[in-house]
Amino acid sequence: MKNAFKKGMPALVALGIFLFLNIPVQAQTEGVVYIKDGIYVSDMHVGGMTVEEATIMVEEYVESLLPLELTLQVAQAGERVVTAEELGLSWQNPDVIREAAAVGQEGTIIQRYKMMKDLQQDNLHFELELGVDVEATSLQVEACAEYDRDAINTSLKREDGEFIVIEGQAGYKLDVEKSIDQVITYITEDWNHQPGIISLVVEEELPKGSAEELAMVQDELSSYTTSFKSSGQSRSANVINGCNLIDGTVLYPGEEFSTYESVSPFTEKNGYYMAGSYVSGKVVDSLGGGICQVSTTLYNAALYAELEITERYNHSMIVSYVEPSADAAIAESSGKDFKFVNNTEYPIYIEGKVKDKKLTFTIYGKETRPSNRTVSYESVILETIPAGPEEIYTDAGQPIGYVAKQSAHIGYKAQLWKVVTVDGEEVSREQVNKSSYKMTPRQATFGVATADPNAYNEIMAAIGTGSIDHTVNVMNYLITAPAQPQGSEDASQ
After folding, report:
1. d(Cα 475, Cα 403) in Å, to the nearest integer?
2. What's the domain range around 27?
3. Within 10 A of 264 (CB to CB), how many other CB atoms are there?
4. Are 342 and 281 part of one and the same domain?
5. Contact at 8 Å (CB) between 292 and 238?
6. Taking a C-beta distance cutoff of 8 angstroms, is the pair 453, 433 a contact?
7. Quick one: 171 and 277 in the same domain?
8. 241 and 328: one domain?
């Protein structure tokens, strides 16, 4: 009898396990799988639910997270508050519900029994994986670039002959790609599903210089002056404006200075007026006319300070305020610029001043050149090209009495040489540049529109002589003669 009972034990155990596994703790109908008790997705208990019910519950939970606010922190510069929805928050592993439903449904009876017993002792947790839309996140992160700012170097201001140190300011630049990764990592790994702060990746640029370093700027390295006494009001205003835009510039060792970048744009808003300038061998009015006198004056100051000239162009025609080859033109249309590098071991300070229609640039730094060494520059004219015959043009859109004249310019080919002497003895002579200036003849354009055929014939005959002065005399006679047609007098300029 005992042996028979022992022989029946395995069958009884199996029957008990079978009955245990089918205890209707949760209802189960044919074709419908219910998740076992003690199973969680994140902190949500899904036991007793169907796959569909559990899916709906998790989706509703994820939807409840969408309005939560997350602060994108850009170092000390600022922040941007966004919602999880604006980052494109979504549920990344919906298959986890089917994984949860499969627990206790697969394997042998013994394996299933063991799983059920384990669930009675310890709950089983499945992770809820969240993610963001990369494109939506990129847009939100890129918007934080508004807090980017350039570093402002420690600088100087010169007042009443004394230097005053101006403290610098650190700069910030958002690393967009790394910041996007930072947001993704926060949402997928670190987020507690509460409002939070995400620190974006920002590269900090420290300002150059210190008060100690700038204290070395005490010596005058060079000074150069040009006059603009013959300039009209607009051109004079442009020279003064350009000077003011450069005044106070500090260049640290190795830094390059661009005149064009410093004085542009050439707009009324930036302080410029219409004045004469050289364009394609002609003198035309343009905003900022006269600014090349600023670049030229600075060029000579840089030469005497023996700074490294990295870009320089001569004018198309000769200028009157410096010797040939001692000029430096800048032009927006042709991309001309005057640039130089601070090749000294110390900071330099550029001071610009205007007094009595004289422009002066002085460069300060630390003088390391011997006191018995002198630098000078010589302009050497290689060729002179006389101006050609006068040129006269007509403008049928302007009345008799209108005349626009341009003076003749002699053409030159020239060189600039640097001469170094020590104790008065020349020790070196080297060519700095070579320049070619166009010859342009004296030119004039006359208006020829008139209702009087006799007047038209006379002005055309005068033009035919090729003499500008003779044509001007005939023009003046025609506009003052008593028998002029009505309306011709208001053509005089």
Report:
1. 9
2. 2-65+94-127
3. 18
4. yes
5. no
6. no
7. no
8. yes
In a domain, 12, yes or no: yes
Same domain, 25 and 121: yes
pLDDT in tens, 40-78: 998 899 999 999 999 999 999 999 999 999 999 998 778
Residue 221 maps to a domain: yes
Q: Can you tell me the distance from the alpha carbon of 353 to that of 263, in angstroms, rounded to the nearest whole number?
A: 15
Mean pLDDT of 303-307: 98
Greatest distance between any 2 Cα atoms in the chain: 156
Q: With CA atoms as reference, report the closest residue to 144 among 182, 115, 179, 168.
A: 179
pTM for the model stands at 0.70
The rounded distance, in Å, linking the Cα atoms of 399 and 488 is 7
- Domain end point (choices 210, 227, 249): 210
State which amino acid sits at residue 327.
Answer: D
Q: Is 8 exposed, middle or buried (0-12, 13-18, 19+ CB in 10 A)?
A: exposed
Number of domains in the chain: 3
Is 460 within the bounds of a domain? no
Same domain, 155 and 104: no
DSSP string of 329-394, one letter each residue: --BTTTTB--EEE--SSS-EEEEEEEETTEEEEEEEE---S-TTEEEEEEEEEEEEE---S-EEEE
Q: Are 183 and 72 in contact (CB under 8 A)?
A: yes
